[in-house]
């Protein structure tokens, strides 16, 4: 059988070492459950695995190598996005400490699934072949479907998992269909081969390829929650356990954008003129829909869900111009998005455990006087998401707008400006609730006839009055907020990081 | 030196967090005084005859994006910086004499506002200017929202609502300005080295087509900030909500940043668009003069009388700048300083009156002069300066403005003169209504306290000093103003206005 016809591909074990590290960690954590309760050391093992993977990835910084017969590529873009995902996972581990969802799912499974999802993200960021692309995407998604539903006692959590599963599968199927068209047209599955095929066979603007591009865009738009394919986002964000929401908001978006960029810039590079306008229109719709949708939200997680839709629209701007600066801006924005969002989610987790209001905006009323160590991070996060100066959010927008104007998409830059204006109304509402309104006494509201707010039911989530002082919640919030301000004042290190990532494709 | 001037207030504000509540006010006052001292020392070292920048700092801030940390002083901003430093001393000292809730935060925000305001005056890099311009809003947002007055009992908005309105109004302009600034740099670089240096861009120039739309992005930001008629909607609510010590600096300085922006940025960078749209801006300025004046003598709330009078005064200043002659702009700069010096004591007096009478309604005030002759005298000086009594510096300022306007657009000048007449009416109405007339019951007519006198007297002395020697400002401002204005008149290509200019120059 294994005669002259089959040659096993050369495997560069050094190159895929991050993937190996994650897989080993996943297996160890899962198997360790066999030998008894893993409650104590599963988080520790997870952190260890993530740390080792990050180290191995950094080892390959500035490498640009193709792995496993052109299935994967390790370059700075892949490494940068992987690092963002790993950082998000690390924060999630901290936020999951004492989280009910983690207990109920059994600690081992919860963390193993988290690592499984990170594995998918690393693979996705590295993939440069339709097959690995799709497999990685599913590796990323399937653990998340389960993680969303791990808070068994909450109806919203199960609903969230199911909704995500159905919508996610639809997105995957659409994407797969699109891939089939592109493969059918070009006869290649690797990205470089597709680009070559399009040019060699004269398929530029060919209907077959265009249908493929359209379907693939729709599929990826589902994953990155670009409007009008975003409807699942607020519901899933709200229902999922909050640490998982924070992970999805940042890491999934980063990984999906990484492959979005690689697929469209490398494989569909010859078609740039065709997809640019289409994606620009999607970005504009996303900006408007996300910002308007967030206006009336009382649940902070829903609010951040809609804001995530709008932010995805901004980020898309970097891809639309398909230039080195654009991709750098996209990576920069994703990195700042990590800090901005995690500061907010850490505070939401703390307040969910501390008050009976769940993730309702009422939970943060009067926070400025009550818990300044939480109020400042959330304030900085909101101001940064709104793009105000002295935060990394401002530099991110500046970077994107500069790339857009240079790429002759000034109209989209104006959309970003207009969207930012709308967004102020809801971001500042949160800020006003913290600083400009009195706190609500939980004792009064906790009795009897309280309406169920934002998926929280008092019996399911016992209140921990000191959650707002726990180091594993306060430290991530303060650190992320400090990083947001730091990179707003001294952005050069992050700009260099993003420039390295962006230039690896060109 | 220039760095110390810019960052000292912020640093003082930070340290304030670690001081006991009693001392913070005095500490902040000392910091503001120290800033003023630095400013005065720099003014003494200023070379009067030079048109270029002095005391410059220029280092790369974000290299990939072409943004420099570039500061400098010239005739355009020297006195505005001194005005800023002076009024902040007044505002902070006035607040320090009174009990504030959460004083550390209050004074930190006040000082942060001073740094950002000084930053926008000092910036010589377009993007840095935009950054500080936007940043100014953040501390004022908190100051208005947290310490502001709730007007919902009178059917008005609450403080957070009023301040949100202000934020959205002003950021509409500023965010478009961000896009405009980036577009300016990219278009003028034309594929070459990207720089945001105002000087470099004005040397390279922009094509007229780009100038036209970018002009409006900048004009929108500056006109809203002033506020000019038809974009002033945020002003009444914000002025009624604002805490009075904050309003002293807000009304005294912030409005001038808009007018200053026209001189610093718009005239040198978009000269052709300026001469093209001169008439439209002059119409807006005239409308502001008329509308502001009429509103000022129909309002009964003393804050709003002062607020609308500012609208009218800023209309004058704009008209002076858009006379596009050196004397008009000289007058505009003098008038900016004058108006700041007049409106700040006006609000301090209003604050004192409100404390004495317990109301802000002009109709239920009166008779204050009976027992408070010193206060009455101080107020009279301020009121006479407001109405531009011959002999006051305001008279000189308005004379220069009208002189410039007469020579370029005589019709506009004729209408603008009516504003001078109306200002006499509202200034005297305010004075009479509060100081003379019959004293209503419940009004405590007490002499101004020594502490408030210490704040008010120096400001009034500055008014008198400028009245005696307005050349102090005019001489130093003129070379820089000539340069800014020459950018428009020297290169003006649109036939309609250039002929007039030529005729006038002969």
Which percent range describes the beta-strand content of chain A? under 5%
Helicity range of chain B:
over 70%
Adjacency order of strands in the biggest sheet of chain B? 1-2
Overall strand count of chain A = 2
Structural class of chain A: mainly alpha
Helix fraction bin of chain A: over 70%
Give the H and E element order of chain A.
Answer: HHEEHHHHHHHHHHHHHHHHHHH
Q: Which outline of chain B best applies?
A: globular
Radius of gyration of chain A from CA coordinates? 22 Å
Number of H/I helices of chain B = 20
Quick one: biggest sheet of chain B? 2 strands, antiparallel
SS element count, helices of chain A: 21
Structural class of chain B: mainly alpha
- Total strand count of chain B, please? 2
Order of helices and strands of chain B: HHEEHHHHHHHHHHHHHHHHHH
């Amino acid at each position: 059988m294994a005669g002259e016809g089959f040659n096993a591909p050369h495997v560069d074990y050094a190159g895929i070492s991050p993937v190996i590290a994650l897989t080993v960690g996943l297996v160890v954590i899962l198997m360790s459950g066999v030998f008894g309760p893993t409650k104590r050391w599963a988080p520790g093992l997870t952190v260890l695995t993530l740390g080792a993977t990050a180290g191995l990835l950094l080892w390959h910084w500035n490498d640009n190598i193709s792995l496993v017969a052109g299935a994967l590529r390790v370059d700075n873009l892949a490494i940068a996005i992987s690092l963002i995902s790993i950082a998000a996972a690390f924060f999630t581990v901290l936020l999951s400490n004492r989280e009910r969802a983690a207990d109920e799912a059994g600690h081992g499974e919860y963390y193993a699934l988290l690592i499984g999802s990170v594995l998918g993200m690393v693979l996705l960021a590295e993939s440069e072949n339709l097959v690995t692309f799709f497999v990685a995407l599913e590796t990323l998604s399937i653990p998340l479907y389960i993680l969303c539903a791990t808070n068994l006692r909450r109806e919203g959590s199960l609903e969230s998992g199911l909704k995500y599963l159905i919508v996610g599968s639809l997105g995957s199927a659409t994407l797969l269909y699109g891939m089939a068209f592109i493969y059918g047209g070009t006869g290649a599955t690797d990205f470089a081969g597709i680009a070559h095929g399009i040019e060699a066979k004269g398929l530029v603007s060919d209907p077959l390829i265009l249908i493929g591009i359209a379907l693939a865009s729709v599929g990826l738009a589902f994953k990155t929650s670009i409007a009008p394919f975003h409807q699942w986002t607020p519901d899933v964000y709200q229902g999922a356990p909050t640490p998982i929401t924070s992970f999805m908001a940042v890491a999934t978006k980063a990984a999906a954008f990484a492959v979005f960029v690689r697929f469209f810039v490398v494989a569909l590079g010859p078609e740039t003129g065709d997809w640019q306008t289409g994606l620009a229109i999607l970005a504009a719709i996303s900006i408007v829909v996300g910002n308007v949708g967030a206006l009336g939200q009382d649940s902070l997680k829903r609010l951040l869900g809609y804001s995530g839709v709008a932010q995805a629209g901004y980020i898309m701007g970097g891809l639309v111009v398909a230039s080195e600066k654009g991709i750098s801006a996209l990576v920069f924005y994703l990195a700042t998005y990590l800090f901005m969002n995690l500061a907010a989610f850490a505070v939401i987790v703390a307040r969910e455990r501390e008050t009976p209001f769940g993730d309702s905006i009422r939970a943060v009323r009067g926070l400025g006087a009550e818990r300044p160590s939480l109020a400042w991070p959330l304030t900085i996060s909101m101001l940064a998401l709104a793009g105000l100066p002295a935060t990394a959010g401002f530099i991110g927008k500046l970077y994107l707008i500069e790339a857009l104007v240079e790429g002759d998409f000034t109209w989209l830059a104006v959309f970003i400006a207009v969207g930012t204006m709308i967004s102020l109304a809801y971001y500042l509402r949160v800020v006003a609730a913290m600083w400009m309104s009195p706190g609500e006494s939980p004792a009064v509201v906790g009795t009897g006839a309280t309406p169920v707010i934002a998926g929280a039911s008092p019996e399911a989530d016992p209140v921990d009055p000191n959650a707002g002082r726990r180091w594993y919640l306060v430290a991530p919030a303060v650190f992320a907020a400090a990083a947001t301000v730091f990179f707003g004042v001294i952005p050069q290190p992050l700009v260099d990081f993003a420039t390295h990532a962006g230039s690896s494709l060109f | 030196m220039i760095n110390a001037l810019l960052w000292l207030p912020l640093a003082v504000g930070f340290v304030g967090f670690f001081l006991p509540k009693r001392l913070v006010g005095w500490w902040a006052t000392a910091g503001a005084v120290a800033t003023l001292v630095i400013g005065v020392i720099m003014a003494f070292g200023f070379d009067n005859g030079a048109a270029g920048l002095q005391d410059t700092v220029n280092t790369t801030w974000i290299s990939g994006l072409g943004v420099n940390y570039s500061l400098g002083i010239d005739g355009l901003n020297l006195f505005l910086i001194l005005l800023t430093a002076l009024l902040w001393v007044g505002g902070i000292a006035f607040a320090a004499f009174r009990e504030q809730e959460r004083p550390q935060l209050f004074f930190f925000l006040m000082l942060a506002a001073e740094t950002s305001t000084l930053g926008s005056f000092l910036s010589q890099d377009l993007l840095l200017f935009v950054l500080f311009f936007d940043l100014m809003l953040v501390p004022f947002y908190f100051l208005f929202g947290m310490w502001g007055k709730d007007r919902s009992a009178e059917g008005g908005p609450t403080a957070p609502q009023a301040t949100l309105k202000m934020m959205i109004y002003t950021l509409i302009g500023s965010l478009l300005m961000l896009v405009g600034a980036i577009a300016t740099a990219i278009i003028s670089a034309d594929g070459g080295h990207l720089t945001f240096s105002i000087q470099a861009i004005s040397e390279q120039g922009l094509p007229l087509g780009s100038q036209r739309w970018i002009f409006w992005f900048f004009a929108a930001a500056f006109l809203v900030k002033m506020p000019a008629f038809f974009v002033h909607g945020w002003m009444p609510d914000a002025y009624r909500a604002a805490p009075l010590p904050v309003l002293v600096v807000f009304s005294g300085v912030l409005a001038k940043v808009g007018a200053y922006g026209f001189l610093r940025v718009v005239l040198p960078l978009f000269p052709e668009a300026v001469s093209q749209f001169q008439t439209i801006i002059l119409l807006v300025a005239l409308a502001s003069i008329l509308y502001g004046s009429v509103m000022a003598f129909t309002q009964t709330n003393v804050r709003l009388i002062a607020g609308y009078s500012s609208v009218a005064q800023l209309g004058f200043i704009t008209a002076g700048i858009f006379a596009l002659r050196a004397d008009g702009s000289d007058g505009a700069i003098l008038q900016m300083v004058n108006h700041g010096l007049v409106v700040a004591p006006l609000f301090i007096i209003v604050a004192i009156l409100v404390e004495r009478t317990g109301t802000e309604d002009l109709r239920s005030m009166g008779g204050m002069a009976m027992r408070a002759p010193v206060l009455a005298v101080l107020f009279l000086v301020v009121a006479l300066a407001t109405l531009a009594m011959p002999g006051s510096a305001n008279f000189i300022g308005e004379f220069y403005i009208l002189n410039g306007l007469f020579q370029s657009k005589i019709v506009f000048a004729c209408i603008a003169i009516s504003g001078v007449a109306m200002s006499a009416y509202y200034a005297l109405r305010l004075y009479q209504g509060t100081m003379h007339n019959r004293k209503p019951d419940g009004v405590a007519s007490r002499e101004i306290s020594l502490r408030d006198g210490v704040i008010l007297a120096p400001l009034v002395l500055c008014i008198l000093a400028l009245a005696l020697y307005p050349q102090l400002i005019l001489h130093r401002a003129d070379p820089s103003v000539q340069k800014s204005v020459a950018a428009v008149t020297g290169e003006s290509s649109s036939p309609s206005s250039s002929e007039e200019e030529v005729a006038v120059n002969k």
